[in-house]
UniProtKB/TrEMBL annotation:
CDD domains attached to this UniProt entry: BphC5-RrK37_N_like
Alphabetically ordered keywords of this record: Metal-binding
Nuclease as UniProt keyword: no
Name under which the protein is recorded: VOC family protein
Protein species of origin: Pseudonocardia zijingensis
Entries under InterPro entries matching the protein: Glyas_Bleomycin-R_OHBP_Dase (IPR029068), Glyas_Fos-R_dOase_dom (IPR004360), MMCE/EMCE_epimerase (IPR051785), VOC_core (IPR037523)
Source organism phylogeny: Bacteria, Bacillati, Actinomycetota, Actinomycetes, Pseudonocardiales
């Protein structure tokens, strides 16, 4: 098994055609805090997170994932991962060096097997953050990112073999086979998941709330604001976390969640869950049914940024 050096998920960076509408959404009903903004570029922090930002919005002609960022413990770990990837023939976007983004740090970027840009970094300054109070229905942190993949088995193998991700659980369909793989880099059940899809794209990004009450209050705020709900509220079986999925103005699916399971990595054995069983998708039975409408919205638009490094 590949030695795991990645410690956690840092942020997801999105290019969007309508920056102003996206900014209004994320700083308004969604509950993030704008930081370090520039013309057409905004870094959005979660008040409960030590990360400088959890979402970056960049104004662009076409929608895409700019990059997904992960942290490691030391600059030496950055160098080890960069060398490991280069030796394996993975295309580096940038060599290890000083980062020019908020909080600084040391890191590099590379393309994964399908062309997404991934950043690995260490020594990023900690943001002044705070404890989210009872009843405060804003995100505590970025919980996980789920990507759509046209070659999900190869994508899973890439992240396991090169980056030390570990499989937590798999969702299967009795006729279509394996459909989603949950991968972890620490004791959280998943920091990333990979979904089978006709094309690479963002499936969803998920934000952890303080607790059940705050999760429901946030869900209700979005419903009252007229934000389109895709699926939820409910509780998944894999990960045991709650879910409410909404569409942002650019058509990206965003999730409020809480109580994501933490596993004992020494004893954990991955499960195969048949998601045609209602309790797998939603233990509570409160969410709308998982159907073609939900699946199609989760497919998102094909990512236009594959094997194209973001300009920032």
């Amino acid at each position: 098994m590949t030695e795991r050096l990645i410690t956690h998920l840092r942020h997801v960076d999105l290019a969007v055609p309508d920056h102003a509408r996206q900014l209004d959404f994320y700083t308004g009903p969604w509950g993030l805090t704008p930081e370090h903004s520039d013309t057409g570029l905004t870094f959005l922090a979660a008040e409960g997170s030590p990360e400088q930002y959890v979402v970056r919005l960049r104004k662009a002609a076409e929608k895409r994932i700019d990059l997904i960022a992960f942290g490691v413990a030391t600059a030496a770990d950055v160098d080890v991962l960069a060398a490991r990837l280069a030796t394996a023939g993975v295309q580096l976007v940038s060599e290890p060096g000083a980062l020019q983004t908020p909080g600084g740090g040391y890191g590099f970027r590379f393309f994964d097997n399908e062309g997404r840009t991934v950043e690995i970094s260490s020594d990023v300054a900690v943001r002044a953050h705070r404890r989210i109070e009872e009843g405060e229905s804003i995100p505590v942190r970025l919980s996980h990112v789920v990507i759509n993949s046209a070659e999900p088995e190869a994508t899973r193998a890439f992240y396991e073999q090169h980056l030390g991700f570990a499989l937590s659980d798999t969702l299967v369909h009795p006729r279509m086979g394996a459909m989603m793989w949950f991968l972890r880099v620490n004791s959280w059940h998943h920091s990333m998941a990979i979904a089978r899809c006709p094309h690479p794209s963002l499936h969803h990004a998920s934000f952890e709330m303080r607790g059940i009450d705050e999760y429901m209050r946030g869900t209700g705020r979005l419903l009252r604001a007229g934000v389109e709900k895709i699926w939820g509220p409910g509780r998944h079986l894999a990960g045991n976390n709650t879910f409410s999925y909404f569409l942002d103005p650019s058509g990206n699916t965003m999730e409020y969640t809480t109580e994501l399971e933490q596993v004992d990595e020494d004893t954990w054995h991955p499960h195969l869950y048949d998601f045609t069983q209602p309790e797998v998708s939603d233990q509570w039975g409160t969410a709308n049914a998982m159907n073609e409408f939900v699946a199609k919205r989760s497919f998102n638009d094909p990512d236009k940024g594959l094997f194209v490094a973001p300009p920032v």
